[in-house]
Amino acid sequence: MIEALKVWVINITIAIFFITAVEMILPDNNMKKYAKFVLGLMLIVVIINPIIKIFNKDFNFYSYTNKATSYMESSTAVTDIKKYKDINMLNTTENFKKNLEKQCIIDLEQSYPENKYNADIDIIYDDKKAVFNINKIEIGIVDKGVRNIRKIEINAKSVNASKRDILKGEQGDKIKRLLSSKFKISANIVTVYKLNL
């Protein structure tokens, strides 16, 4: 038991000397914090390795690291990483879209409180530039007062109730200008319409 304790203390001392030497030769840049993180993990492994062996005699840290390394080098790891990255980007895009729509409605209701608004924004993520691009903004205006009766078209095959009347006057233009200046986009991609509910 004393011999095992002696080996453990020697391993910790060697690890600390090694970590100190590596930190001294590292340049002061962004890479240093990542190197310190990895070196800290190495020190934790050296410290807890004998403690784990007390509870599990068959524990071999090197076999676990070899399994992890082989998994990271395999093609399944690359596929899994790409799958998780795609799912994460899809969720991020959806959350960004919802937040942008909420912010758009808040801005419109603060600037023009006489109406209620609905927003539908089409965005896409540009991988090369790592930015979100707004392709289209559609703003629906709902009057707070008396609502218009919906226009109903009756054909022999089906009944169609139009829910949108595009605004082309001053009201639509001022909303386009507000959103264009707020989001630094062209007013041409903003569509404003009366929403008949």
UniProtKB/TrEMBL annotation:
<keyword id="KW-0812">Transmembrane</keyword>
<keyword id="KW-1133">Transmembrane helix</keyword>
<dbReference type="InterPro" id="IPR014245">
    <property type="entry name" value="Spore_III_AF"/>
</dbReference>
<dbReference type="Pfam" id="PF09581">
    <property type="entry name" value="Spore_III_AF"/>
</dbReference>
<feature type="transmembrane region" description="Helical">
    <location>
        <begin position="7"/>
        <end position="25"/>
    </location>
</feature>
<keyword id="KW-0472">Membrane</keyword>
<feature type="transmembrane region" description="Helical">
    <location>
        <begin position="37"/>
        <end position="55"/>
    </location>
</feature>
<protein>
    <submittedName>
        <fullName>Stage III sporulation protein AF</fullName>
    </submittedName>
</protein>
